[in-house]
Each structure stands twice: as C-alpha cells, then as structure tokens.
Amino acid sequence: MASEITSKEELVSLTSNLDSKSTTLDSVVGDLKSSLNGISDFDGINVSEKASVIANNLSNVSTDLDTVVSNIKNYVTQLTNFDVDDFNSGGSSSANTVAYEDLFKTDGSAEGNARVIWNFLKAKGLSDAAAAGVLGNIQAECSFNPAAIEGNGEGHGIIQWSFGRRERLLAAAQQRGVDWRNLQFQLEYLWEESLDPNSSYGQQLQAAGFYSTTSPSDAAYYFHRYVEISNDTKEMIANNRCATAESWYSKLKGTSAGNVEGTSSNLSSSSWAALSGLPTIVSYASSGGRTSSSGYTTVNYATASSSSSNVLHLTAVQMSSGDPNIDISKYHNNLEMGFEVTTGNLAYEVSDKEYELLCAIVAAESDKSYDDALAVITTILNRCESPNWVRSHGINPVAQATAPNQFVVYQEGSYKRYMDGNAPETVKTAVMDALAGVRNHNYLSFRSNDSISYSSNMITKTGNRYK
C-alpha cells in the first residue's frame, strides 16, 4: 500500500530511484531487442518478421517510459522549488489559514478595500492578472467605495450596477437582509452574477481568455467589455483601467490572504440565480414552442415596473453553442460587410406574446429572409447590451423595439399584419435562434435599402443597410 510522502527529500529520493530502475529496464529492453533481432526463420516459418515487430514495439514502449520518467523528474524539480513540508497536514500552513469572514476586514480606506477585493478574488481562484484587471475597473468606477452612487442616481456599488442589474442587486440585498452597501455582499454578488465561469457573463469572459491571460491590461479590457460595459473609449480604457490594473498587479502579485476556511453566503444558489438573472439554458423546439433542456431549470425574473400589469418577464440565459435544436447552416456570412454568424451570445427568454410581437416587427422591417431577419433581431439584442441604448430603453428586447422614434413599422402599425402567427417561418426561426444566442453582426442601427447614403453594409441584396 502506498505511503504518504512527508518531505521533499523523500520525493527526490523516490524520483531518483525511479530514474535508476528506468535505466536498468532500458538496458534489459536493449538486450531483449538484440536477441529478437538475431532470430532467424525456422523450418520455413517466418519467425524473424514477428520477432522484428516485437522488437519495434519494445522500442516504442521504452521511449514512452523514458518520456514519462523525464516528465516526472521535471514535475519534481518544480515541486521542490517549494517547501513540500508546507503542504502536509502537520506543516506550517495552518499559520496561514484565515477565516472566511476575516477576508473582509478593512479600515475603510481605498487601499484597504482594494486589498479586501484582491484577497476575495484570489480566494475564489482568479489569477493575479485577472484579479488586477477587476481592480483596475473598480478603481475607475468608484475608487473602491462600495457605497458609491452615480451622479444621476443610476449606477450603484463597486462596479456601478445600473438599470435592471442595479434593481437585481438591491433585490438580492433585501432578500439576504443586508445593506446593499456592504462590501462582502457586493463581492459575493459580483462573483455569482459576473465572475463565476458558469454565469452568462463568465462564459463570455472564458471565451475571451480573461481567466487564462497573464496580462493585467488584457484582463481589465475583457472585464470592461463583457461585464462593466461603460461608455469609455478605447483610449480611456487603456489610460485608466488597464494602467491601474498593471499598477495593482505590480503591488499585489504573489500575495493572498492564505488558506480560507468557511463558507461564502447563506443565500442559496437558486435564490442568487432568481435575483441576479444567472444562467439557465433554454432550448427552442422546432415547432416554435420553448422548452427547457433536460437537466436545467428555467428561472424568470420580473423587470421593475410601477404597475404589476406592465411587468415583463425576461431572463438573460447562458446558451450552449452546441444546442442540437439550432441549425445555423441556414445563415450566411458576409465578412466584408461585417456579418459573421456567431453562437453562444447572451440569450433572452421572452413571453409568447412578446415573441410574437418581436416576430411581427422583424417581419415588417426585414426582407423576410433568414439572414436579414437575423440581422434585424440581432440589432435589437445588441442594443440591449449597449450602454447608451440601455440607458434610453432598458435591457428588454421588446422595450427596445417598441420605444418611441425607434422602429417606424411599430410606430405606424404596419407590423400588425404579421401578428397572430402571420410572420413568415423564416422570420420566426431567426428570432427564435437569436433569442437563444445566435447573432450575425455587431451593428446597432439600420435603414431600408433605399437609404443609399446610410451605409453599404448589407447581408442580402434586398435587405437593410446596417451600421
């Protein structure tokens, strides 16, 4: 039975012993190969050919063994650069253990709060570069003041949660019975909403390389692009968020609070999901009905409304690009004009009535083809995630499509002939797929194809012009 390795000296000794036995085995294999290669045919039987095959196989096995031993030696060399004794239960690691609640002890200063945030993110498993990227953004947003409120009263907290995200933050604080300005609460909420790799935002961060990058500047840029989403220009991001991320990295890299003991929150994961719009995976049946994928539960949350009769149900969901119900071969790229079909984007669940209305508006606005219909609904969903459009009309696709002075077909009523299920199947499918995470451009506006002065970016000859 294997025994526990209790020191790095013992680890080195065992590795040396393995290396010695490997060398001896190589010698034995060499002798055996020589013997096999010396075998001749016997009484008309082709023995030498079989012996040669065995000799070659032995050679391959010997080579593989040498590779394994070499890898083990390299791993041991890396391990012994650390004090192996520190990893044993009887070692000194207990001196570096900190209770979970102690992670959040701060003197209230900007640097004190920054170190709390760093230690929390490190305890959650983020790399130094990723943690520094988050710090660079938080400094830009609130100078590490969790009680910060944007001048217009919209943004709240360390990342200035706004609009629907702010409302869900406040609802989560109320559900938990804590002041929303509590730094521990905000950090736990930030992790569940945006930084957990399984969240909808986390999936986008994962795809971008946020968790694996070794560059604090890149991490700051990714966090801003997929989580923060401010109006800062690229130059402002580089000079502020990225630069301060590099500064925090230089100051804090290689540090942590130590081994953390304890649990993070008494709020159940299902409660977090319901309050923060966290991921569920929704698939769309070919018949047009929406069904939950096996093994997943659909979570709805209501957007804020002064009248319960006007509450719209909308869930931002994580969408697998491999959903078998989505066949993207029907859509086409036009890379020169900025159209590229992508999957796994942020997805939305809307009610049946909202879905029908979106289909009618898209049918009235598009040329009814798969590609142009997808382009129209993509524009609407892009607006749901663009700061300026969100500030004006919110994160609900229907709100974006029906806002005053936005879509003429809605304002003038021409969309109505496509209601009651009268939208073409091409449009219904495109809207359905878009809500599930398929898009084909990054544009925010379009006009009909007779507006030749607007742009030349068209996905179809009879469709709209986008920019």
How does the SSE layout of this entry go?
Blueprint: H1 8-37, H2 47-79, E1 97-99, H3 110-123, H4 128-142, H5 163-176, H6 183-195, H7 200-208, H8 216-228, H9 234-252, E2 259-261, H10 269-276, E3 282-284, E4 290-292, E5 301-302, E6 313-317, E7 347-349, H11 352-365, H12 370-383, H13 387-393, H14 397-402, H15 408-411, H16 425-435, E8 446-447, E9 465-466
Parallel strand pairs: 1-2
Antiparallel strand pairs: 3-4, 5-6, 6-7, 8-9
Helix pairs in contact: 1-2, 3-4, 4-8, 4-9, 5-10, 7-8, 8-9, 11-16, 12-16
Summarize the structure.
The chain is mainly alpha-helical. The chain is built from 16 helices and nine strands. The chain is 48% helix and 6% strand.
List keywords for this structure.
single chain; 467 residues; Lysozyme; 9 strands; 48% helix; flat
Q: Spatial order of the strands in the main sheet? A: 5-6-7
Quote the beta fraction: 5-15%
Count of domain modules: 3
- Which regions have little confidence, pLDDT < 50, spanning 5+ residues? 81-95, 265-322
Q: Estimate the mean pLDDT confidence.
A: 77
Compressed to H and E, one letter per element, the order equals HHEHHHHHHHEHEEEEEHHHHHHEE
User: Mind telling me the C-alpha Rg?
Assistant: 30 Å
Distance between the termini: 68 Å
Helix content: 40-55%
Q: Assembly state here?
A: single chain
The largest sheet, given as strand count, sense and whether it forms a barrel, is: 3 strands, antiparallel
